Amino acid sequence: MKGLELSRRYYETYGKDMLKEQFPDLLPYLAVGLAGSGSECLGFDDDLSEDHDFEPGFCIFLPDEDVVDRRAAFLLERAYAKLPAEFAGYKRNLMSPVGGSRHGVIRTREFYLEKTGLTAFPPAADDWFRIPSYALREATDGEVFDDPYGEFTRIRQILKEMPEDVRRKKLAGNLLLMAQAGQYNYPRIAKRGEEAAAQLAVFEFAKNTLEAVFLLNREYQPYYKWVFRAMRDLPVLADLEYPLYTLMSTDNAPEMIQGKYEMIEEICAAVVEELHRQELTEATCQDLEKHAYSVNDGIADSRVRNLHVLHAV
């Protein structure tokens, strides 16, 4: 059973009645769901995922203490800890009285502070630049089952909608690094016979290509071990998975260099085509460096536009 389904069923079976019966006065102020770290929040969990941090459980998100005080939070924690220890053939982790760091009673502000480092929303442009993509993904993944108070969902929705100027700045930086690593440095390094350094250029190209692809899909790139799995579900440029895999998994012997360089150029051409489709660039060549500056030129906020093109990467 998938972790999100297990969480929802456990909540519907035990958690909802517990909250209604024991905390009717708090119900209007709570949010319940499963979000944050873990493959189950991404929907990518499988049998292997069950060897750690996998259990029936859910999160109860609370507003600040001026709305739900410490005593009420403590009583909620105790009630959550007393929920059945087994469900649908799975056992809860009893190491923590509130069900572990991924489940249990959590202050909404503390959850978002941990993920973003912020206490006020919406973020300013400079704040957006400091938050890693994987952290934004964790802050907005999973599922909210109930949220009558609306605070948790409101912040979640704000974080899901990265401002266009921020997206452009991040994208411009990644495009420039793709150009430097793939179109320029890779063939020069490889022709010198520096095979290990050439592969570092390949990895740098691939890393920035992946980030650019997610930005072009208006999606946050997850933690690195899930990047290729998440890429397969993207609406555009998902077919770049295979050439990126090939670049990363092959060596840089002399007979491989030209074919790998051609593959890099094919990837760049696909990205350029998508840039044009989204009307993000006015450049008409295949040089990604020129497209990077064109994307940057389209930023509406002059202060953000005039920051160094690599400011957001």
Concise synopsis of the structure shown:
The protein has 313 residues and is α+β, with helices and mostly antiparallel strands. The chain is built from 14 helices and six strands. The strands form two sheets. A four-stranded mixed beta sheet has the order 5-2-1-6, with helices on both faces.
Mean pLDDT level: 93
Overall outline: elongated
State the secondary-structure class: alpha+beta
Number of helices: 14
What is the helix content? Answer: 40-55%
Oligomer: single chain
Structure description:
The chain folds into 2 domains: 158 residues, no CATH class; 143 residues, Four Helix Bundle (Hemerythrin (Met), subunit A) (Up-down Bundle). The chain is 55% helix and 6% strand. It is built from 14 helices and 6 strands. It has a 4-stranded mixed β-sheet, with helices on both faces. Strands 3-4 form a two-stranded antiparallel sheet. About 2% of the residues have low confidence.
Relevant terms:
313 residues, Four Helix Bundle (Hemerythrin (Met), subunit A), two-stranded antiparallel ribbon
Layout of SSEs?
Elements: H1 3-22, E1 31-34, H2 39-42, E2 59-62, H3 70-81, E3 86-87, E4 90-91, E5 104-107, H4 108-116, H5 125-130, H6 133-140, E6 143-146, H7 151-160, H8 164-191, H9 195-216, H10 227-231, H11 241-249, H12 254-277, H13 288-297, H14 302-306
Parallel strand pairs: 2-5
Antiparallel strand pairs: 1-2, 1-6, 3-4
Helix pairs in contact: 4-6, 6-7, 8-9, 8-12, 8-13, 9-12
